[in-house]
Predict the structure.
Amino acid sequence: MSKFQKINWQKVVTREYSFLWADYTNDAYKKMEKVVGTTLCCNLFSGEKDILNIYRDPKDVERSYKLIDKVANNPAAVETMMNTYDELVIRNYKLFKEIPNLKNKNDIKKKLIELDKSFLLTVMYYLFFVFLGYGANKPNIKKFLKKHEEKFDKIRMYTIDMDMKREFPKCFSKYNKVLLGLTPYMKREELLLFLKTGATNKDKIKQRVKKYLVITKYLKTKEYKLDDVAEVLKVELAHLKIDTQTKIITGQAACSGNARGKAVIVLSKKDYHKIKAGNILVTTMTKPEIMPYLKKVKGIITNDGGALSHASIISREMKIPCLTGTKYATDIIKDGESLSLDASKGVVRRLI
């Protein structure tokens, strides 16, 4: 990609992620091409509290898919990567369990540094397999997934993003209690600096709870001040316009079928209690923890995902009509709206 090319930001997802997770992914992008064979050069993420919005450039994403398809031409190499990813996840869980039980501060520090190295590598493999799933229509990837679908489904169910949110504050606060509330809003380098010097900028970190914006262009990253976020977003995303009045939203058919019902908008687990019998779930994406609630719904619509996303796999298992990859469903549809979902045709109609 030419560094003079204008970036055509497109919204990818809105998810219940922490600032720390997004920062780890940024660090992963800067190293992962040498480790797993693919990367992204451009990334924009903004958010408030636990809700994160991610934007990417479609040409950059397509480049990533092509790099992965090249890697997938050597199936044995991808199988080895699957095994490595398995091992890293197991190592992380071992450290999550071990660190909170340590007493000596120097031992805790050593283990936290080990956790950081292990987790950064894990994120690289996680992103590789996320992109591999999204690029499933590429010839080599398609061939690989046809043969290794069962194992791929297993590793795509790993919840390392949510594991970080739950476990990192517990582990780092074991070193110093002040980190319990700060960790989700810290940068990776800030955590490592704290371990080295004990220094931290609490005011800067606490501002991220309100709002933040970080833009990576051609692997060079800049975080914007709170007062500048709205204006910079306005400029960077000026080309994006969402028709909130549209009555028809399209996506990819994940599980065929038809359903009618009232929409329930779920942006995080805090919204799970809203799900009632007969609802059509409209969400950014589904996670394993939502499974008990899916028995109630008539249909599923997600912003994110494709044929091998969690929502696609689970909807087919549960035979729930499902539409994925709508991008903006949660921005357009309102709670309680009547919907008619024709997943077979990849369409949902708002009956308003």
The mean pLDDT is 93. DSSP finds 14 helices and 13 strands in the chain. The radius of gyration is 21 Å. The CA atoms of residues 234 and 352 lie 30 Å apart.
